[in-house]
UniProtKB/TrEMBL annotation:
It comes from Oceanobacillus picturae. It holds the Pfam family AI-2E_transport. It is a multi-pass membrane protein. The chain crosses the membrane at residues 7-26, 32-50, 62-91, 168-189, 223-248, 254-271, 278-301, 321-353. Keywords: Membrane, Transmembrane, Transmembrane helix. It comes from the Bacteria. Its main location: membrane. GO terms for cellular component: membrane. The keyword Transmembrane helix applies. Belongs to the autoinducer-2 exporter (AI-2E) (TC 2.A.86) family. InterPro entries: AI-2E-like, YtvI-like. This is Sporulation integral membrane protein YtvI. PANTHER family: TRANSMEMBRANE PROTEIN, TRANSPORT PROTEIN YTVI-RELATED. It is found in: Membrane.
Length: 382
């Protein structure tokens, strides 16, 4: 190994540890102050609307920010109200058929117990009479231990559900408090947004500020592309489920299709959260044809999503389809279901850094240090 190679490796290690340290610090800072970062992001996204209101209606900046905040609250409240009405409509529609489902399920379970479980238990009692008293005791102890383990497993599941509900009730007030800080921060950050931007710009080198502006413009384009892609995937899933349920002849087709489409926002699970249990219920109640139809519908929906998701994400955000597919898989492996969202986001950030020249600058530092590129390299780049 030459001295130059050793220096390059040392610079690479420095860059790697610096990136990891900065990522850790950024994650820690975001964790303790995330409402204000979210508020700053919202101000950045909606500030063009603030400028428009300020110029068209001739309002002061603080009042224009307040108007945008009210508009945002109205839109959010309308969306939540619409979602609540949709859920109520779906629940009312399902409530008309759930009693019949419960009655049918109860009858099926009773018939299954009388025709299958009870005869087996009776034959088991007759079978145990063949054994000696010691063998019967050992068999009864085995059955008792199995029952104990089953009861313990059920108790653990129940405890987990209770703990989950408890954590949910603890999280909800914290979420509402963070939500309040986001909107308060939106007003105060938006009111002084131009002062904050001017102060940051005067403290930054010109080259860093230019890259920050480029990052902002590209990020805005790709974030809206990601949102468009998710909405399109949900719409496609709703259409597929709607057509499938029409073919199967189910009731309340539109309501179920909308709910299944909304479930597609869940990473990895998607439509399976609705269609999977529904298909199992149909198999259990003896409606094998409907169960097979729902299973096929779920397979088609999941297959179409897996086939078109990389393409839609790549076209909406101007990314390579293979890179998106790899980011989805790697994110799933590293972060679980949340990684299905985090993977493409990390890929987008990396591609933006590459587009604005940050990756190139780091590579130049690793190769050449703080010196400028040699003339030969500049000529090859041209």
């Amino acid at each position: 190994m030459t001295k130059n190679q050793a220096i390059i490796i040392a610079r690479f290690i420095i860059v790697l540890f610096s990136v990891l340290a900065l990522s850790w610090v950024a994650a820690w800072v975001f964790k303790i102050s995330y409402p204000f970062w979210i508020a700053a992001l919202l101000v950045w996204m909606f500030y063009p609307l603030v400028r428009l209101i300020r110029s068209k209606i001739r309002l002061p900046n603080a009042l224009a920010v307040f108007v945008v905040l009210l508009i945002s609250l109205a839109v959010l409240g309308g969306a939540i109200t619409g979602l609540v009405f949709l859920i109520i409509w779906g629940v009312k529609s399902l409530s008309k058929i759930i009693p019949d489902w419960i009655q049918s399920t109860t009858g099926q379970a009773q018939d299954f117990f009388n025709n299958s479980i009870l005869p087996i238990w009776q034959r088991l009692g007759e079978f145990m009479n063949v054994f000696s008293s010691e063998q019967q005791s050992a068999l009864q102890e085995s059955i008792s231990s199995m029952g104990t383990r089953l009861a313990s497993s059920i108790a653990e599941i129940g405890t987990g559900l209770v703990n989950g509900l408890t954590q949910l009730f603890v999280i909800v007030p914290s979420f509402l408090l963070a939500f309040l800080f986001v909107f308060i921060g939106f007003y105060f950050i938006g009111k002084d947004w131009e002062k904050i931007v001017t102060r940051v710009r005067t403290k930054m080198p010109v080259s860093v500020w230019d890259k920050a502006k480029s990052f902002r413009n590209i990020l805005r384009y790709r974030v809206w592309g990601l949102i468009r892609a998710q909405i399109l995937l949900m719409f496609i899933a709703s259409i597929i489920v709607f057509i499938g349920l029409l073919i199967l002849g189910t009731d309340h087709t539109l309501a179920v299709a909308i709910v299944v489409g909304a479930a597609e926002i869940l990473p990895y699970l998607g439509s399976g959260t609705i269609l999977g249990p529904w298909a199992l219920y149909m198999f259990f109640t003896g409606d094998i044809g409907m169960g097979i139809g729902l299973a096929i519908l779920y397979g088609v929906t999941a297959g179409v999503r897996q086939a078109i998701e990389p393409k839609i994400l790549s076209s909406s955000m101007n990314l390579d389809a293979l890179a998106v597919l790899i980011s989805l898989f790697v994110g799933l492996q590293l972060f679980g279901m949340v990684g299905v969202f985090l993977g493409p986001i990390i890929l987008v950030i990396f591609i933006i850094f590459k587009d604005i020249g940050v990756v190139r600058d780091l590579m130049n530092f690793i190769k050449f240090g703080f010196k400028e590129e040699p003339d030969s390299v500049k000529e090859r780049r041209k």
